[in-house]
């Protein structure tokens, strides 16, 4: 990764690539999930998405013309290993070869995420992340990708948001693979983190580029003054924030979590990192559970008094400044904001997105002025895309995508960000 503050944009494979049945790609859990009736609120799938697989050169031009330093994208595991194991699919690796070379030719550093939730369905059929063996398969996959791309990638991100994949995918069932196991989902957290540690070792053997993991973080706002309210806030913070970061830095898991840890696992997970990847969207309001027998030790409560996005998420830039300060104090690692963005439907004059970006970039600047080591800011996302269980109904892009014609049209926020980067480089 280049020196100095890094400006970037981000995407994920299933959300933009399409071409799900081309060139030897295997099926992923999101292919399965999206085709099951009722799973995606709009009934849509990522079969075509933005057709980035065929239009990547056009998209790289949009990225380069924005003036960013780096582009964070994810590799589709089933495109590289159709069954999640065995030799690499040459056509899949060749696509990412072309993408990386095209980015570098335009002066943009590739930042590769190895897992952004599209687990090969064949591995899910064998137990998915409940199966400890999946962690070892992930390390083999990481080695295959790094062997091919490791000489040109600027930074590696092993996992994207293991909290979200665990809770939304395995506890609440609103994401693939659609399991509703509540706290019985926790083994998937441990096996993802074990896979991360094993993958770090594989990457270190292939490349000298920085390695990190991108967590979703949410500052906890305790709503209420009782001891029970504060216990609830601590419980939620341990689940959302600490469970997926403490073990990365050698602290082990927070108390109260029953995880299938074997001898040596925590040492593998604590493989030294070069930075923390920070995905931030909003704080979370928490209070004591209204029903102590309801299964959760907290209630999630809407935060009042803030503007909201089309997801009804509160817009709180100050939360990002506070979060970065807390992570700096707790863990002491350099940080990259690897995702920051908002869903708004309006286009091309998306003034609310401009306001959002200005506020959150300002929060990063304020944190840096206070001595917090933040080295980059990646906007989510360069393109409108398939927004998981919301289908194409939520638009995060700096660039509007017509999902009928696939025509790309930069929004006002794209022009604003280009001018901001140029003025502050």
TrEMBL record:
It holds the Pfam family Glyco_hydro_1. Keywords: Carbohydrate metabolism, Cellulose degradation, Glycosidase, Hydrolase, Polysaccharide degradation. Gene3D superfamilies: Glycosidases. It is an enzyme of class 3 (hydrolase). It catalyses: Hydrolysis of terminal, non-reducing beta-D-glucosyl residues with release of beta-D-glucose. InterPro entries: GH, GH_1_N_CS, Glyco_hydro_1, Glyco_hydro_1_beta-glucosidase. Transmembrane segments: none annotated. The keyword Hydrolase applies. The keyword Hydrolase applies. Its EC number is 3.2.1.21. Belongs to the glycosyl hydrolase 1 family. This is Beta-glucosidase. It comes from Luedemannella flava.
